[in-house]
Amino acid sequence: PLDIYFNYIKANPGHLSFSVNQGYFNVPSLVSPAYVRSSDSRIDTPLFLLKDTLKRNVQYSLFITGDVATNSIKTIFTVDTATLPKVGRGKIRFIDASPSGTAGLDVYANNTKAFSKVAYPKYSDFVEIPNGFYDFEITAAGSSTVLKTITNVQIQDGRLYTLYAYGYLNRADSAAFNAAFITNR
C-alpha cells in the first residue's frame, strides 16, 4: 500500500492499494514537495516525486503501475476535466496501465473500434459516444483475440468515463490482466 503527500501532509484518506479505485479526494496543499511513499512506516524514502503542477478546482487521476521487483514503477497522471459532450452523448478515454500492453491495446465498443494502439503507459484523449449500453472488448493491437470483455456498461448523457487496463497477461493471481471503469464526472 502507498500514500500520497503534499507539503509533507498525507492526502489520501486510506492507503492506496493495487486495483482499488480510491476515488477522488481533496489534497491538503498545492505546495511542493508532492511525493508517493510506502505506507510501511519503516520505509521513509519516497518511491517517487510528483512533478506535475496541480491547479485549484481541477480533478486529476494518478495511476501507479509497473513492478517493484524489477524497479519498473511508472506513473500515469491525467487531468480529468474535459469539455462537456454534446446532448445525448458521453465521453470516454482509455488508459493502458498494463505492462503487458507495451505494443498497444485496441478497444472496441459494441464491435466498433473506439481506441487503437494505445501503448503502455499512455492514454487516449476523451472521445464522444452516444448514450446507451455498451459491451467493451480489449485486444492486443491488431489482434482479434479478446483479452478482456466488460459488458452492459451504461454511458450517460454529459458524463465522463475512464476505461483502464491493468495487470499482466502471464499472471493468474490478483495481478492478472483486467480492466475497470471510473466515472470522472
Strand content: 35-45%
Structural class: mainly beta
The largest beta-sheet arranges its strands as 2-1-3-4
Oligomerization category of the chains in this entry: single chain
Low-confidence residue ranges: none
Helicity range: under 10%
Number of helices: 0
- Total strand count, please? 14
What is the distance, rounded to the nearest whole angstrom, between the alpha carbons of the first and last residues? 26 Å
Order of helices and strands: EEEEEEEEEEEEEE
Brief overview:
With 185 residues, the chain is mainly β. The protein is built from no helices and 14 strands. A hairpin with a 2-residue loop joins strand 8 and strand 9 (112-118).
Q: Would you kindly provide a written description of the structure presented here, covering whatever features stand out?
A:
By secondary structure, this protein is mainly beta. The protein contains no helices and 14 strands. The chain has a 4-stranded antiparallel sheet, with no helix packed on it. The chain has a 4-stranded mixed sheet with strand order 10-7-13-14, with no helix packed on it. A 4-stranded antiparallel sheet has the order 9-8-11-12, with no helix packed on it. The protein starts with a strand and ends with a strand.
